[in-house]
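Please decode residue identities from the backbone states below.
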């Protein structure tokens, strides 16, 4: 099991390139199951989650070739049973459910188990598919879907108690593109990754309007064809490096990013007093040592992303004054707080709100444990400005979603080493 050794204190300066979006790549790779023709997807990041998805596609019968960031998939003959051993490693595997149901009229996917960031039900995914006419049961830990009577378009509200669902919207869209008639999704997720999936589906011949808004209208077609697509830049990776610059810069420039997708993060960093300059696909952050804290509340897009909450907690930990963080999407997503407390961070938690008392220069290195993808990124950020050495264990969590994070940080001047166990 690899670990990171980080010696804090080095000032970060320079430029790095942002990778393609992991969260776009996963449903887009799954969507290639909708056609028997070849699809070519560019800028797929080399992270373990995309590797799992490729293995799932191969296991379902697809032929996959990968070279650098480009993946060619030909799903000529596929079967309907997603392999448990692979599915259980990644929750996002659930998004093969929609395409398998649409193309094969049946699917068997294991029910995702517990998740460290809190309870993550799939009731809305199942509601959407049921509304289209699929019969669904859960047996032996598997979701069994039968749509042999055909899928029929309908008006469906996908809002849950925590708002819209990203992968639930994706699943419903991917089922509806081959359904008979029109499907209207109210309360759809408006995240850029959903829009990116729809852009790919449209290239495959799907008829979709309203992607990127709360109301998506899909007119089912008989067949989809192969297509080529390049995934959008990873807004969470981009945001994480902007926070790295705010925590330990210097001046850090990220290339190949999309500022429009990062408005909430950029606004928060500006409110803290850090300098942000946007120039096309380049975003530069200049750390302001006289910065202040602020208040963030996670929300669905275009609100502040839950996937950036942990990284902001790391920033607030070393920012003078009081900051307040409220987590509205996954109220239990605060595993990073316990680990950063071991490094000297000061927090008070009440339900889904954490009040951070910032202590610039107050962190010291310690052995810490990565618990989930974004919490692990927060520990790396905290380590960059801690005194002494931080040992971050279980970095396989980081490798799920950050392409070569150690190399990119080294490029900026960080003292971070991957130690292979
Ligand atoms: C996606 C992202 C993840 C991000 C999350 C929220 C991918 C691969 N993952 O996950 O990084 O943190 O969006 O932006 O894109 N919910 C239900 N019932 C359901 C489904 C969801 O109640 O059937 C709830 C969840 O528990 C959560 C909220 O809805 O409280 C949002 O979750 P959702 O958008 O579905 O997250 P994912 O799509 O799984």
């Amino acid at each position: 099991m690899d670990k990171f050794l980080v010696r804090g204190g080095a000032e970060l300066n320079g430029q790095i390139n942002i990778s393609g979006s992991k969260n776009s790549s996963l449903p887009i790779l799954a969507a290639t199951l909708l056609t028997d023709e070849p699809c070519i997807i560019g800028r797929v990041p080399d992270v373990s989650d995309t590797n799992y998805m490729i293995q799932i596609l191969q296991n379902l019968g697809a032929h996959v070739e990968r070279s650098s960031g480009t993946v060619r998939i030909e799903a000529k003959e596929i079967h309907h049973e997603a392999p448990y051993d692979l599915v259980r490693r990644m929750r996002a595997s659930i998004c093969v459910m929609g395409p398998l149901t649409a193309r094969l009229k049946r699917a068997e996917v294991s029910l995702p188990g517990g998740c460290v960031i809190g309870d993550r039900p799939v009731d809305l995914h199942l509601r959407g598919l049921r509304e289209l006419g699929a019969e669904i049961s859960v047996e032996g830990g598997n979701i069994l879907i039968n749509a042999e009577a055909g899928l029929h378009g309908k008006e469906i509200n996908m809002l849950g108690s925590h708002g819209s669902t990203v992968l639930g919207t994706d699943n419903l869209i991917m089922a509806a593109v081959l359904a008979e008639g029109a499907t209207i999704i109210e309360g759809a997720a408006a995240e850029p990754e959903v829009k990116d999936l729809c852009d790919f589906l449209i290239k495959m011949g799907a008829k979709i309007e309203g992607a990127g808004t709360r109301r998506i209208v899909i007119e089912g077609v008989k067949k989809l064809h192969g297509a080529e697509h390049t995934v959008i830049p990873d807004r969470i990776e981009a945001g994480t490096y902007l926070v790295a610059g705010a925590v330990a810069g210097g001046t850090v420039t990220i290339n190949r990013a999309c500022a429009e997708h990062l408005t909430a993060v950029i606004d928060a960093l500006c409110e803290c007093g850090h300098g942000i300059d946007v120039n096309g696909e380049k975003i530069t952050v200049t750390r302001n040592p006289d910065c202040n804290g602020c208040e963030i509340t996670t929300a669905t897009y275009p609100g502040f992303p839950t996937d950036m909450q942990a990284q902001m907690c790391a920033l607030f930990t070393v920012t003078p004054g009081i900051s307040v963080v409220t987590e509205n999407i996954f109220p239990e997503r605060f595993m990073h707080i316990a680990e950063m407390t071991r490094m000297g961070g000061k927090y008070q938690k009440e339900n889904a709100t954490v009040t951070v008392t910032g202590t610039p220069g107050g962190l010291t290195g310690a052995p810490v444990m990565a618990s989930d993808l974004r919490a692990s990124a927060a520990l790396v950020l905290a380590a960059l400005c801690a005194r002494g050495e931080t040992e971050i264990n279980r970095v396989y969590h980081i490798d799920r979603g950050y392409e070569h994070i150690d190399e990119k940080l080294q490029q900026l001047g960080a003292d971070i080493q991957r130690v292979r166990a």
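Observation: The pocket of uridine-diphosphate-N-acetylglucosamine is lined by residues 23, 26, 92, 120-125, 160, 162, 165-168, 189, 193, 306-307, 329-330 (CB under 6 Å).
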